[in-house]
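Aim 2 progress update. The chain analyzed this quarter is reproduced below.
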Amino acid sequence: MTGLLHHLPILPVAIPLFAGALMLLQRDSQRNIKGVISLASLLAQIVCAVMLLLMSTGQIESGWAGNVGVYLLGNWSAPFGIVVVADRLSTAMLLLTSLLGFACWVYATARWERAGVHFDPLFQFLLMGLNGAFLTGDLFNLFVFFEVLLAASYGLILHGSGAARVSASLHYIAVNLVASFLLLIAIALIYGVTGTLNMADLSVKAGLLDGAERSLFEAGAAILGVAFLVKAAAWPLNFWLPAAYGNAAAPVAGVFAIMTKVGIYSLLRIGSLLDPNVAPAAFGGEWMFPVGIATLVFGGIGMLATQQAERLSGYAVIMSSGTLLAAFGMPGTVLTGPGLFYMSISILTMGAMFMLLEMVERTQTFGADLLAISMEAFDLEDPESPDRSDDVVGVPMPAVMTFLGLSFFACALLIIGLPPLSGFVAKFTMLSAALQAASSPAATLNAWIFIGAVLVSGLAGIIALCRTGIRLFWNVDETVVPKLRLNEAVPVAMLLLTCAALTFWAGPVMQYFETTAKYLGDTSLYVNAVLQQTPIATDAAIHGRGT
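Predicted structure tokens:
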């Protein structure tokens, strides 16, 4: 058991890697085998995430220094070797990823995994990239895991065919390739100046730079910040998101809800490791706050302007990114805890919303475009198709419209931040913390700007979601009762019930994130844990020293 716990931090990367590789060896017709492998992989990732989170809080004895787990790949000590770091922040993101991934995969088993080849392997590789990005302890491997998750996302966003999907996907691919190129340039500049890419080592060496080296480091950090902003869907670099997410297959768009948060996580992680007194301007609140406010306003305007429900969800994702950027751009760590709580609610809610809207669109006699695309891709309209079945689009379920209506209402409350659900708790704590952070006239002004932007964008969300709800549910002449499958309704209900549970457990969860914020404010805990981790003495090494 001790040996297993030692290797636990690398398992969230290794499990989906081997699961995806194993499924590539299976023929596409062997869906049952792939389904078993996917289910086992996803359940194992949830178990690993829960155990790592408990170990990072000290509830499971781990022997980690400061409850920060450091895994040395190849048994090379930092900064010379590759390290994986499991702490309070990364393990929370792992748990969110595994829960969202499980729900979206279950939804996909209803029909979407059959809309094209290699859905299950690509889905596993996407999770591998996400888990690796949250766990990695150096910039270059952050770039590597970004590329892994993006390469998988390129295949998934095209999954299901259709002209609109292909057109939006090409924009998504082009923009992210440019962002990856910028990320690589930034990493090269930073390595050339500091001689290291290990985040903990970089935290130490960045403070020692001056003169021309400092200027080059600032330039590299600025380019790095721009690359992360593209991935975080910050204004004005987010024009690609509404169309890409709106036209993607429902479970793909659902799991994409966490991808913009990877950029925000990277900004928070790297920014927290740099000494505030010597941090480069690219990671200072002076720019994160105004960019966040602009993104928040853009998202609110987009929600008002669009008439398509899927694009409205895309703008809601942008609005949540803007809220987080503005919150993390406020001075100190007062808003970090509430911001992390809000991010958790946003990820789960938007994942449920994208899948819910695909089911709701079936109630419209004029719509159901995504379902029509999938039917054509499956060749299910052909009576001779081997996949043809009477319940391929679902079976009648009792109170379908009640379930869809209440789910949409719950999503709307969570997105807007109205009581009684956890979205209100998250936004209220953020606004309250913003007032606490007002320690100077400038900070007070920023706090009121933040409060005003959040409230006005919430009003825009109320108008947009009410208008969409009326169009989807109250237009009796054009509404039909759709057929649903159990593996479509359950994932959406699971995510929404999780958000509801967070309302009742808001106290312990908020306390966890507040402690996480304090941990991020003390860089020595992370730096010391990584740089002081020693390789394990193997029998071969001991024998070599003895001879």
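Confidence is low (pLDDT under 50) at residues 366-395, 539-547. The beta strands are 69-72, 83-86. These observations will guide the mutagenesis experiments scheduled for the next reporting period.
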